[in-house]
Specification:
Helix 1 crosses helix 5, helix 14 packs across helix 16 and helix 19 packs antiparallel against helix 20. It contains 23 helices and 15 strands. The longest helix is centred in the N-terminal third of the chain and has 28 residues. A six-stranded mixed beta sheet has the order 5-7-8-9-6-10, sandwiched between helices. A four-stranded mixed beta sheet has the order 3-2-1-4, covered by helices on one side. A three-stranded antiparallel beta sheet has the order 12-11-15. With about 625 residues, it is an alpha/beta fold. It is elongated and about 140 Å long.
């Protein structure tokens, strides 16, 4: 800020000198009606002069006829003495008014400055160049400094009360907090606290939040940095930043160093395109060295987070470095309920809100998803000019996150509406009459996201394992839409393309990954090849013969075709329910769970068969 102020001041000062110099040059350049002193004396003696204004050696003459002239006295003598020496009579001089202006020192100063103007301009340019060079040197010196952000532990903003749905992880990390608060208790028993804690879990499960909660509970300084902030294009910068970070931590011990997305620098060495001497690996080597340099009295805990522990270098995971692993998985229904309680703090809720139902209706959502859900519901309530979040807004937010926003403006022909209604009704009816399928919560033909309509089905309880019969019923339900089109019109449309893709993936996984084929037996087929430096699956390597490949294709086809025949049979046997639900969708566009179950359990009236097109 001070350097910028100095540069601006210098530029303004030089600009001022240039303006004043130009003004003086213009002002002195063209005198009006110049005259000689001898002519002036003659006019004084003739009584033609009214006033002479003296400004230094310049005489501004005003005649009695109103005209003016300018001349210079040209000597160091006074004005009267000069005029007398040239022949002006004392009587004539007495009739002339002579105001004398005192010479201004500013004129002399500005004249002096204008003379030195080139030197000032040259000196100013040299000064600016030196300042810029000095700033570049400072930036070069700071290039290897750590970019970690330090948060003081005096006023913790996040504690364990702000973290929900991860009770086991909090219990694991409570030991870290206790060690930072009372290290003597552990040292007296000869215990060694883990130097590093690696938090593992899918994105959005609260790994960063948990690390800040540990720092808030312990009341210690908290250094936060991302793994990618270590690495630059210049070799050695990352290692320098690691050294600087650990030096800062030692000066502020006890403290916590949090490295988010450590897989950016902690990937297995020797797997990169640049061999074993690239910048990332040098940074990792420096981290390993610094962690080995800790002793039992340092009181520095390193907490790192990643969602790819499988690609980390084994040296990071050995005892003495990141020797404790804490898993933060997606929360179950109880955990989601606790997370919702955290995120609705300070938000008004309507009386019709059932957070238990919201928790049950959001399987697979992580903490970040639930936070976004509550925020979306608050935005919707504000848009609708409501004073509190209602159940309708929360349900709408769930569907927005799963499927995208509604597209009521999309224009659909009557034929397309009928096709969509029967297609979605086919999904819902086959799932209802499939014994192991999940309950249907909503059926709609309102376009949302990329879908022209959809069926929302949710499990009554969380599951981590799937059975063979349940996966078969998933195939039947996914093919119900295409089966309904064939039954009603004897033809099929492109609307089932995503359904076919999904059933093919499920059926192939059943055969090649889960060993659910009686013909091929309980074996897995195909090794998924991963490039560690890319951190993702590239392709599947075939470890089986062409004969087995043919059998796999036949088994996958048999599963899909069998599920399709089952869907056709269920819909033919319950065509009245299909017609009833489709007509209801054409009438109201959306059918909720209670209305759907009432339609499925009631006797269907006679419905006129419709033809597409």
């Amino acid at each position: 800020m001070s350097g910028r102020w100095m540069r601006n001041s210098l530029v303004f000062f030089v600009f001022l000198i240039v303006v004043v110099s130009l003004w003086r040059f213009v002002d002195d350049s063209s005198p009006e009606e110049p005259m000689s002193l001898n002519d002036l004396v003659q006019q004084i003696n003739a009584g033609q002069i009214e006033k002479i204004e003296v400004d230094g050696d310049i005489l501004i003459v005003e005649r009695k006829n109103g005209s003016e002239a300018v001349t210079r006295k040209g000597t160091e003598q006074g004005v009267v003495e000069t005029l007398r020496a040239l022949g002006a009579t004392p009587e004539a001089l007495q009739n002339v008014e002579m105001p004398i202006n005192r010479p201004s020192q500013w004129g002399n100063i500005l004249s002096l400055l204008s003379g030195f103007l080139p030197l000032l301009l040259f000196g100013g340019l040299i000064f600016i160049m030196l300042r810029q060079a000095q700033g570049s040197n400072n930036q070069a010196m700071n290039f290897g400094k750590s970019r970690a952000r330090m948060f003081s532990g005096d006023k913790p903003t996040v504690t364990f009360d702000d973290v929900a749905g991860a009770e086991e992880a909090k219990q694991e990390l409570a030991e870290i907090v206790e060690f930072l608060k009372e290290p003597e208790k552990f040292v007296a028993l000869g215990a060694r606290i883990p130097k590093g804690v690696l938090m593992v879990g899918p994105p959005g499960t609260g790994k960063t939040l948990m690390a800040r909660a540990v720092a808030g509970e312990a009341g210690t300084p908290f250094f936060s940095i991302s793994g990618s902030e270590f690495v630059e294009m210049f070799v050695g910068v990352g290692a320098s930043r690691v050294r600087d970070l650990f030096e800062q931590a030692k000066r502020n011990a006890p403290c916590i160093i949090f490295i988010d997305e450590i897989d950016a620098v902690g990937r297995q060495r020797g797997a990169g395109l640049g061999g074993s001497h690239d910048e990332r690996e040098q940074t990792l080597n420096q981290i390993l060295v610094e962690m080995d340099g800790f002793d039992s009295e340092t009181n520095i805990i390193i907490v790192a987070a990643t969602n790819r522990p499988d690609i980390l270098d084994p040296a990071l995971l050995r005892p003495g470095r990141f020797d404790r692993r804490v898993t933060l998985d997606r929360p179950d229904v109880k955990g989601r309920r606790a997370i919702l309680d955290v995120h609705i703090r300070g938000k008004p809720l309507a009386k019709d809100v059932d957070l238990d139902a919201v928790a049950r209706g959001t399987p697979g959502m992580a903490g970040a998803d639930l936070e976004n859900l509550v925020n979306e519901a608050a935005i919707l309530a504000a848009r609708r000019n409501k004073k509190a979040l209602g159940g309708a807004e929360l349900q709408e937010a769930i569907e927005r996150l799963m499927m995208g926003p509604e597209r009521r403006s999309r224009i659909m022909s009557e034929d397309e509406r009928q096709l969509t209604a029967y297609h979605e009704a086919g999904h819902a009816v086959t799932m209802y009459f499939s014994e192991m399928a999940d309950p249907v919560h909503k059926v709609t033909i309102i376009p949302r996201g990329q879908a022209g309509g959809y069926v929302l089905w949710l499990p009554d309880e969380d599951r981590t394992l799937e059975s063979y019969d349940r996966m078969k019923d998933q195939l039947v339900g996914a093919l119900g839409g295409r089966a309904a089109e064939e039954i009603i019109w004897g033809d099929v449309s492109t609307g089932a393309s995503s359904d076919l893709q999904r059933v093919t993936q499920i059926a192939r996984a059943m055969v090649t990954r889960y060993g659910m084929s009686k013909r091929l037996g309980p074996l897995t087929y195909g090794d998924r090849e991963e490039m560690i430096f890319l951190g993702r699956e590239i392709s599947e390597q075939r470890n089986y013969s062409e004969k087995i490949a043919k059998q796999i294709d036949e088994e996958v086809k048999q599963l899909v075709v069998g599920a399709y025949e089952c869907a056709l049979g269920l819909l033919r046997a319950n065509r009245d329910k299909l017609e009833l639900l489709a007509q209801r969708l054409l009438e109201v566009e959306t059918v909720d769970r209670s209305d759907f179950e009432r339609l499925m359990s009631s006797a269907a009236p006679e419905v006129e068969e419709l033809s597409f097109g």
